[in-house]
Amino acid sequence: MSDIKFIDDVEIEGKTILLRADFNVSMNPNYLTIADDARIRQVIPTINYLLKRNNKLILASHLGRPKGERVPKFSLQIVCNQLKEYLPEYNIILIDDFLTEPESTFKNQKADDIFVYENTRFYPGEKKNDPKFAKKMAVHADIFVNDAFGVSHRADASVVGVAHILPSYGGLLLKKETEMLSMVLKKPEKPFVAVIGGAKIETKIKVLDRMMELADSLIIGGALANTFLYAQGIDVGASLFEKDKTDLAQKLLFKAAQNNTTVILPSDCVVGNAQELEHGGMVCKVSEVPKDKQILDIGPETTARIGSIIAKAKTIVWNGPVGYFENIHYRQGTDFMYYAITNNDDAVSIVGGGDTLAAISKKEYLDKLTHISTGGGAMLEYIEKGTLPGIEALKK
Ligand code: ADP
Ligand code: MG
Fold first, then answer.
1. Hey, what CATH topology would domain 188-385 get?
2. Two domains, one topology: 7-176 and 188-385
3. Going by DSSP bridges, is the β-strand pair 282-285/268-272 parallel, antiparallel, or unpaired?
4. Which atom of ligand 1 approaches the CA of 225 most closely?
């Protein structure tokens, strides 16, 4: 099997291209405005690259989880409006239903028209990777380009199905994402420090497991850490933790010891009540968490310890907030993590994860991070397996 080809490895000119982008942007609660358009912004270089070579574009993406039905708040119209900001010279035209759109629309596409297929997940065939549906999506294009790293862990029709029908290539963002992650996975400069936080072990087991092999130090924070503390016999009070994952946590710690990976768990924490907004929490040792309180952030002793490890790192991967950052009283640990990483000018740093990006997206110094991954689940799966179904589908 050969490797995949990216659009700058070949000459693509004067074609009609179906470009799968990941426009699954985070929205404000009213669904009327975009909270963070990083995912749109990051695909613009690929769009411009293809347009410059006289190609016509049909863009496809999902937004949210409409589960095969037309849910108006998940319409890509809002994405079209934002695309217009970045591509003011083009007409961004939403194709409301490409299954019924007359052939003439596609025949008459002008050089300055960019078509955008309405949310691919409005169609039941998308998640089922229905070949007939994929065929209809592909029929108006000569070439398929996948630039949707964030969804390439899903074998959906618009990611995998169409790649089996048309000559297919990776876009510039897909290239950047995979190059960055491969560099870290194949020959990371040492010390390699991984910071894994978040809520559920289930979603992080595989990346934890892989990091036990790869990293020199593995910092575990968030509710995830509670399960590890509990597995070591510590009473975590009313904290969120997973009792049934105790064995797993012990096995992971054993694996770390076998691989000479230092695991850093919190030694102190901020405890309180997640829903309480008026008052902040209280600092205590992890061995002294009151029965009725929850661990909601890492404490100052822990942050100091982590700070010095991050300061010496040459490679850093961060996924998952280390505290309940949605409540302002418990976001200090996560903020500290961000500042520690952006203050290390010598390290290659890669940050990813939906909530992680939400926690840092409005900050200064974002450009001090080497790479901000547009993938959450996709990044984790890529770290684990070194490839993704959407990438495999481009290999021919
Ligand atoms: P990402 O989307 O970046 O991969 P996750 O989805 O794994 O991150 O985890 C983010 C969630 O974890 C956030 O909602 C955050 O509030 C929660 N979390 C982190 N630490 C704690 C904690 N100590 N107690 C409860 N929830 C926590
Ligand atoms: Mg998340």
1. Rossmann fold (3.40.50)
2. yes
3. antiparallel
4. 23
